[in-house]
Amino acid sequence: MRQFIQDIAENNHYQATHLLQILRQIQSRYHYIPEAAIEQLSDSLNISRTQIISVIEFYSFFHLTPKGQYELLISDSITDHMLGKKDLLDYLADKLAVTVGEVREDGLVSLDNTSCTGMCDQGPAGLVNGYALTRLDRPACDKIAELINRQKPLNEWPAELFQVEDNIYKSGLLLNRQIKQGAALSSTFSRGVKETLKEIDKSGLRGRGGAGFKTAIKWQFCSEEPQTERYVVCNADEGEPGTFKDRVLLNSYADQVFEGMTVCAAIIGAKQGFLYLRGEYLHLHDKLQDILDQRRQNGLLGNNIQNAGVDFDIEICLGAGAYICGEESALIESLEGKAGIPRNRPPYPVTQGYLGKPTVVNNVETFLAAATIAVNGGDWFADIGTEKSKGTKILSISGDCARPGIYEYPFGTTIQTILNECGAVDVLGVQVGGPSGTFISNQEFERKLAFEDLATGGSFIIFNSSRNILDAVQNFTHFFAHESCGFCTPCRVGTSLLKKQMDKIVEGHGSAGDIVALEELCQLVKNYSHCGLGQTAANPILTTLERYLGLYESQLKEISFEPGFDLDGALETARRMANRYDAGAHLAQTESEHE
What we know:
By secondary structure, this protein is of the alpha/beta class. It has helices spanning 2-11, 19-30, 35-45, 49-58, 78-82, 85-96, 138-149, 183-191, 193-203, 215-223, 245-252, 254-268, 285-297, 328-335, 364-376, 378-382, 415-421, 469-483, 489-506, 512-528, 532-536, 539-547, 549-554, 567-594, and strands at 70-75, 102-103, 109-114, 126-128, 131-133, 168-170, 231-236, 272-277, 302-305, 310-318, 359-363, 392-399, 405-410, 427-432, 438-441, 459-464. Strand 9 (302-305) and strand 10 (310-318) form a beta hairpin.
């Protein structure tokens, strides 16, 4: 072990910023992070044991105690539940003779749940030692159990178990045709970097991750910072349940994404870029490395790119299972080898980002669009869409429809048009933008896909009338409670309380006061949380309460009383007891403060 860790540390130049990548390799080798490894890393990287342990405990793919030689994780996304995930998990646990959440006695296999794996169009899905498993059913579970019990290495497993498909059903402005390798850079250098920035400004391109900040303004702010060291970061940590478009873009359009990053680097004067790839997309890692190597060989990365005097290279960094790292400042913390806790803002990354230097962070789709605009010009893009939402939006469509997959639509397209084209019928509602977005009912399908109406990072989950919407709300609420980074009390405690309150109501133990308390708690979490996770964690409840109050009320238990029961007297007694309790609690608090 000592030699193995020594080699890893040396290959990573003993840089503490590479801690996540080092821990990933140790986890892969030993199926946990041994205490001896922590001690050695502390010395080699010159960081404290407690810091290393805090990082391990923060990310769900790292463990301080051994997991199975085969670590199986099954996606707990609502789309997987809609495809029978719960029964399938129980079946797999029975076949493997292992309890969910535990390691089998022989240490060969462990089985547990995990958050959405980005395979919502081909679920039920899961991971085995980090590699994607798709379209799981009972025959697939039988085969997996057999392979594990025979201790077959993963490279000898049938390829169909790992088959990941793009499922592109509708192409538009960006997906219809790929630009030639190097074309965006040639256009940028021949036109001039400042003029290319003007074209991106003219295009009206806004960030495709959901927030919608204007891309050209962000790049300009960064380029005007006085520091000479700047960075470009591509955020490929799409952890929002129901989103998988970035997976498809990186699988089939990665060259163009890297080209967009390089165009950005030329404009802002950056020499180093990072692709932050979510840990669930481990299966893409080697393919993406090969594309980067090819670009270096073709003079499109490295020193003096296309003889234009631009030096720039890209490094891939894998996440380790933390939804919060999709938030740009948390992502930067993770890139620096730390726990992904969002920073206070301002300052923003464009002024103080990676290592405190000016940094542009954009979504995969944004860089893809920027490369295409560099070739075709701003007007080509701006002619499509609405006044405030230019161009097209790529959607990840899943749930109750005939053709789940990738669809590209001009901004301004109605929800009804989208539902018609993906084969959705008898639709009850749609979750637009994932759990942190908005649930719309079947009375709102004339609304439009646009920043000024329904903004989305790309997630589009469809529910037909056979579904109970509260099942989805409960699933989303559990997701946020699990993924809270724990930094601030309103989110850490609030999401946990929301989960318990939703469980109480869904399981039929709630009363009318519980709905009032639920809504009040939602507002507290929304208004006082530190970052976007907590600020949107209550959205599934708030947007469905607004539309389906009667559904919530139908879950409440009925209270009956024996004949002659003095309800008014009982309520008065309860009020007196409550007043005494409040007075006593106030006194105790006062005494505590005095001490």
